[in-house]
Amino acid sequence: MAIYNEGVVRTQGAPDPLVPQPLATAIIQEAPTQSAALQLMNKTTLSSKTQRMPVLDVLPMAYWVGGDTGMKQTTQQAWKNVVMVVEELACIVPIPIAYLDDADVPLWSQVQPRITEAVGALIDSAVLWGINKPATWGESVFVGATKSGNTVIEGTGVDLGQDVAALGEHMAQTGYTLSGFAAMPGMNWKLTGIRSAQGIPIYQPNMQGKPGGTLYGYNMAEVNNGSWVMPTAGAIMLGGDFSKAIIGMRQDISFKMFTEGVISDDTGKVILNLMQQDAVAMRMVMRLAYATVNPVTIMQKSSAITARWPFGAVLGVGTTPPTTGAIDVKTGYPTTGGQLLAADTGTTDVESLSQWEQGALEAQTEALTDAEGYEAKRGEAVERSVPGGGTRSTSHRRSRSQGTEE
Fold it and tell me: How far apart are CA 134 and CA 9, in angstroms?
């Protein structure tokens, strides 16, 4: 029988043993995104773990005087503290040395930008939405907007541009102005799609230009790092006076490589020994604080610090109007006497402490108790009886000016 279908051909469905298949060293991926909060908010450098900022809370008032001999009234001006507390965020990326040597791409140059992106998403989730926000930080932008009632639901006006204008009008009536926006992914294209009755683009007249960038002349940043909370649980846009939101940098993001050491879990169990298991690790550390200052305005002279807020939100269609409430403003330090305290209560939150922290807290409490007992005994010892039934202190105070003892 004649054979016509045999020969040396390429292997199908699997790598051919004779034909090399090179691996592209360029990884197909999207460019890392940045933190919207770090772009929009006011940034400052902190020199310690905490910083106290006085915020105007009470405005002075003037009064008419009745007649030539009328009594002039008094007034006051008062401030309250807003406290910033530095918190640390970090991560460790271990990689076996053998895997680093065998990889055809430079792994660390691929890992580091993604860590930076994850940091930005974590910060935005905390300060914009209150998700995984440290207990020592004040209210997030979105939660404060809903609690203060600074919200507009999409569709209230004839188009989204009018809804944003309605939010700006409302904010102006509270004494705060809109100076920037943080928006959901795709907001620039959503605004570009708005047309007039004649079909003319309203937001982007130049169809050849890049869409977006500003809204009503103010900066608008789309949050594309995965932290945005979409409607109806979140919002389509956050706007306000971003100079009132402060990010305090104690230590900017830093990376350090380790070739020796161990990685353990929270029980102390060693998970990876870098020296013994031939691995290296990259550690990222960043320390920062967040707070929003909300000074009293002339438009809300009687508003409490827990009721006024310099941010608002445009909520999605179908969102139920949120209920208002007291805004969480940190006006005091989170610790006293070196003890760890529960948020807003001033009491020791032992249940939330680790075993090591509980032991340290118990030792500290015991030391304070011993010190108080020592002072009490010392106070009794320095008092001695004198003739006549009185008491006299054995301590002598020397007059600096006369050089005599009393």
Answer: 63
**Can you tell me the distance from the alpha carbon of 235 to that of 128, in angstroms, rounded to the nearest whole number?**
11
Please provide residue 390's backbone torsions phi and psi, each rounded to the nearest 5 degrees. -90, -175
Contact in structure between 40 and 219 (CB atoms under 8 Å):
yes
Query: What CATH number has the domain spanning 36-60+77-333?
Result: 3.30.2400.10
Rounded CA-CA distance 54/83 in Å is 9
Domain boundaries, the chain: 36-60+77-333, 349-387
DSSP β-ladder status, 42-45 and 245-258:
parallel
> In this structure, what DSSP letter does residue 201 have?
B
* Range of lowest pLDDT (14-18, 211-215, 328-332, 354-358): 354-358
Nearest to 39 by CA among 228, 236, 171, 223: 223
pTM: 0.74
What pLDDT, on a 0 to 100 scale, did the predictor assign at position 404? 43
Given CA atoms 14, 15, 16, 19 in this order, what sign does their dihedral have? positive
10 Å Cβ neighbour count for 149?
A: 16
Residue 13 vs residue 160, higher pLDDT: 160
Here the tokens at position 302 are 């009687």
CA distances from 143 to 133, 138, 220, 255, 342 (A): 12, 10, 20, 33, 21
Gap between the Cα atoms of 86 and 103, Å rounded: 38
Q: Which residues have C-beta within 8 Å of that of residue 22, sequence separation ≥ 6? A: none
CA distance 72 to 69: 9
Q: Which residues contact 242 (CB under 8 A, 6 or more apart)?
A: 40, 41, 42, 179, 180
Rounded Cα distance, 186 and 188, in Å: 5
**pLDDT band at 201, cuts 50/70/90?**
confident
